[in-house]
Design a protein that fits this description.
This protein is α/β, with parallel strands linked by helices. It contains 8 helices and 13 strands.
Length: about 375
């Protein structure tokens, strides 16, 4: 039954009035005093061997995130890579943020990749307005904790002087204010603030080039940050070629994985096609890291000149657990579900030594896995600058 005009107008007014108020400003006291951002400064003279911790998808789950951060600090890393989804925000009515105009759209096809049942909600009129109001008590588009919560939970890293390089996840990009706050707070330390809608960058450290990509939000009707031939993919090709010429080893960090055996959500086909097959396979990439899938998985597939490349997924730091699909993807070496985790990498001249480390969280069921839950090595040829 259609909404009466007066009811629809009331919903629109209420949504417009309530929506912006739920966005809190970033607290300056939570930022690093030296950088003014959510990361400590990068080391001026990095060690020959780098110890790097990788994790993703904290999604506002403070008890789990606190435990993961404590576990990471116990390993004394030189650098932390965060694979995205610092918050758990949702799109209002599964619609793009059009600065309030989304509330005027009477019907919108509801689509979430991997969740076919969501399409049933396409019959709901004025979906953004109803989500902001009537459904907001059940699934608020902008629940707490917000980015200030993530900053509070990662404060021990800044206190210990450990820098963080962060990729932006889909939950971090559903609202324009979220995109702006993420860019302001988590642009790489020591560099300029990145544009809110162009959040990709590189950092060179100790003979390694870390390339951080933006896979967007996979939301119907929203801007695609990775169009074929677009600025991000053009930049990626050029920066990988530059790393090859300079003899730097490249590690790629992105949120949505190109490959996954997750039952709830698998790998993202367009990331596989546009990023891996058309760009990464043309370069001697050392490692590809991602989150998004709330589990741990390592997939090995042939890359440049047939050399095996490890694709490591670590999204186990807060979101609800995902499960293993009935059939794993080709090259899947290990899939671990139901275990909070982070990955520890030791980077040296000879290559990479990696371990996936389980994290015990008070109050959560514990599978008592072996520690670590996975280990691997990536042997690399000797670096030859200027080749």
């Amino acid at each position: 039954m259609p909404l009466r005009p007066a009811c629809a107008a009331a919903l629109l007014l209420l949504a417009a009035a309530c929506g912006p108020m739920s966005h809190a400003a970033v607290r300056p006291d939570l930022l690093d005093p030296a950088t003014g951002r959510g990361s400590a400064p990068l080391p001026v003279a990095p060690p020959e061997r780098l110890r790097v911790a990788v994790y993703g998808d904290s999604q506002g789950n403070s008890p789990v995130h606190d435990a993961v951060i404590a576990g990471i600090l116990a390993q004394k890393p030189d650098l932390v890579l965060f694979a995205g989804d610092a918050i758990d925000h949702l799109p209002a009515g599964h619609m793009p943020d059009w600065g309030g105009w989304q509330y005027l759209v009477p019907l919108w096809p509801q689509y979430v990749r991997g969740y076919a049942w969501v399409s049933l909600f396409s019959i709901i009129p004025f979906p953004a307005a109803i989500h902001e109001t009537l459904l907001g008590a059940v699934a608020p588009p902008r629940p707490l904790p917000d980015l200030n919560g993530w900053l509070s939970e990662t404060a021990p890293l800044r206190a210990a002087g450990v820098p963080v390089l962060a990729a932006r996840g889909n939950h971090d990009t559903y609202h324009q204010v979220d995109r702006e706050q993420f860019a302001k707070v988590l642009s790489p330390p020591g560099g300029p603030e990145l544009p809110a809608d162009q959040f990709w960058y590189e950092v060179d450290l100790g003979g390694w080039r870390f390339l951080v990509l933006d896979t967007g939000d996979d939301l119907l009707g929203d801007t695609d940050p990775m169009p074929k031939g677009g600025p991000q993919l053009t930049w990626l090709e050029e920066r990988l070629s530059d790393a090859d010429r300079r003899g730097l080893r490249s590690i790629v960090l992105l949120h949505m994985p190109p490959f996954s055996s997750g039952k709830e959500e698998g790998g993202v086909p367009w990331v596989k096609r546009l990023v891996v097959e058309q760009i990464l396979d043309r370069h001697p990439v050392a490692l590809v890291l991602s989150g998004h899938i709330h589990a741990y998985e390592r997939i090995v597939r042939p890359g440049f000149q047939g050399r095996p490349v490890d694709f490591v997924v670590s999204g186990g730091s807060g979101g609800r657990f995902f499960h293993e699909a009935d059939k794993r993807v080709a090259g899947s070496a290990v899939f671990v579900e139901g275990v909070r985790n982070f990955v520890l990498l030791d980077l040296g001249p000879e290559g990479v030594s990696g371990r996936a480390i389980p994290v015990r969280v008070p109050g959560e069921a514990w599978k008592d896995p072996l520690s670590p839950i996975d280990s691997f090595r990536v042997e690399l040829p000797a670096s030859r600058p200027g080749r």
